[in-house]
Amino acid sequence: MSARRGLALASLLLLLLLLLAACKRSGGGGAAAGLRFERAGGKVVTLSTAEMQRITPARDITVFDPNYKRDKRYRAHLLAPLVARGLGLDDKALRAARFLFIASDGYKVALAGVDIVALEAYLAVADLAPGGWKDVPGHNGVKPGPLYVVWRGEKARDMKLFPWPWQLATVRPSPKDLYARTVPLSAPAGSPARAGHKIFLRDCIRCHAINRQGGRLGPELNVPKNVLEYRDEKLLREFIRNPKAYRYGNMPAQTQLSDGDLDSVVAYLRVMVRHKHDSEAAKAKAGAKAKAPR
Ligand code: HEC
Predict the structure, then answer these.
(1) Sequence-ordered list of residues with C-beta below 8 angstroms from that of 202, at least 6 positions apart, any chain
(2) Which of 32, 45, 148, 268 is the most exposed place for a label (fewest CB within 10 A)?
(3) Looking at domain 178-284, which of 1.20.1080.10, 3.40.50.2300, 2.60.40.180, 2.60.40.420 is its CATH number?
(4) How many CB atoms lie within 10 A of CB 227?
(5) Hey, what's the torsion of the CAs at 260, 244, 236, 95, to 10 degrees?
(6) What's the CATH number of domain 34-174, 2.60.40.420, 3.40.50.300, 3.20.20.140, 3.90.420.10?
(7) Where would I find the beta strands (DSSP E) of the chain?
(8) Which residue from 98, 204, 261 has its CB within 8 A of the most atoms of ligand 1, so it is best to mutate?
């Protein structure tokens, strides 16, 4: 084979390789190519930019972005219809479920379907400022795109309460066993405690843990001591409804709860006194035992 033919063959091979790489990029579910949805049954659906545009056309929105601490303009798709399509859920199922949002760097955060709908979460696909995506302040060289979750609802401006995950790559249903230790096992189906558990998962768990499972913004409510072991029930009910009547803090008033709902939540918390699971205490004990012989 002549040197020239060899060279031609080599360039052809190189071209093929480049083409292959390009195909892989656009179809392989990389962050830039689309958003990956992992359904409960194991099926994976990737929505491309064009598919997102067909499901819910992008519009130009202005949001107060707490990452930049100012108004920002984004081209963005409404997030709820994308999650519904990607995971194959109807509106009711979407509102009832929680989802894990996973960024390309592995950062994971759970968001509730009700919040995504009610607080108008959007998936930003472009920063409309000249020059496009800007570094996130305090995170040198990190740009939030190509897919960035932003919120229009005012309540979501507080990043302590609502995460604004950037470089979103994957969405999947939040596993049920994530909160397995919060289940009031001894309470029969249909009992107030079971109803209270449902309310707790809907309204409280993103901020409060039970048996160390749940959010960390508010205090753990079951271990080492259940909140009803040191607080009077009447006070507790008033506090949950209107925390700021007691102290200025980060717990929002739970005015959505009816008296019956409050009864259920209290019944739930009371049952959990009998179902304590404290992984930290168990660890500490094991540690102490291991040291004991010395
Ligand atoms: C957005 C986050 C958030 C949500 C949602 C939330 N809480 Fe809280 N909660 C907090 C924070 C923060 C505190 C601590 C506030 C303080 O000390 O003023 C707190 C305090 C409490 C306390 C007082 C504990 C104590 O001993 O002082 C109780 C009880 C409580 N929350 C119950 C609930 C229940 C029940 C729900 C759901 C119906 C709920 N919270 C929803 C954030 C939240």
Answers:
(1) 112, 114
(2) 32
(3) 2.60.40.420
(4) 21
(5) 40
(6) 3.90.420.10
(7) 34-38, 44-48, 59-65, 70-78, 98-103, 108-112, 121-127, 148-151, 168-173, 209-210, 213-214
(8) 204
**For residues 93 and 123, is the Cβ–Cβ distance under 8 A?**
no
Nearest ligand 1 atom to alpha carbon 206:
5
C-alpha 213 – ligand 1 centre gap (Å): 15
226 half-sphere exposure, CB direction, 13 A CA radius = 17
β 148-151/34-38 pair status: unpaired
Question: What amino acid occupies position 247?
Answer: R
pLDDT at 286: 73
DSSP H or E segment with residue 13: helix 3-27
CA distance 97 to 71: 30
Mean pLDDT over residues 192-210, rounded?
Answer: 92
Global model pTM greater than 0.85? no
Structure tokens at 130: 């000249």
Backbone angles phi, psi at 14, to 5 degrees: -60, -45
Tens digits of per-residue pLDDT, 107-161? 888 899 999 999 999 999 999 999 999 999 988 889 999 999 999 999 899 887 7
